[in-house]
Write a structure and sequence with these properties.
The protein is mostly helical. It contains four helices and no strands. The protein is elongated.
Length: 93
């Protein structure tokens, strides 16, 4: 279980690093007006992108559930409790 959490942490760190690198590209925009407007657009559209991560998590929980795991098992595997695992599966969390 600890190894799986380490794998998950490493995978999350890799993705976050790539996101930070992509956001740093805003700094390279030479025109300050364009840079500020582009950063504002990213900030405005960011909540929609957060939804993508939630969708990916929900799909993963659904895959675990269809694979035969019950919600207490899923909760333990992903580091939460059974009710939160169920809410993730239902798209409520």
């Amino acid at each position: 279980m600890g190894e799986e959490r380490d794998d998950a942490r490493q995978a999350a760190d890799d993705v976050l690093s790539a996101v930070r690198d992509a956001l740093r590209r805003l700094e390279a925009i030479p025109d300050a007006t364009v840079r500020a407007r582009a950063a504002g657009l990213v900030l405005r559209e960011w909540p929609a992108e957060r939804g993508l991560a939630k969708e990916i998590r929900q799909q993963a929980v659904d895959t675990l559930h269809r694979g035969g795991m019950d919600f207490p098992e899923i909760g333990q595997a992903i580091g939460t409790d059974r009710s939160r695992a169920w809410r993730i599966w239902k798209g409520m969390s």
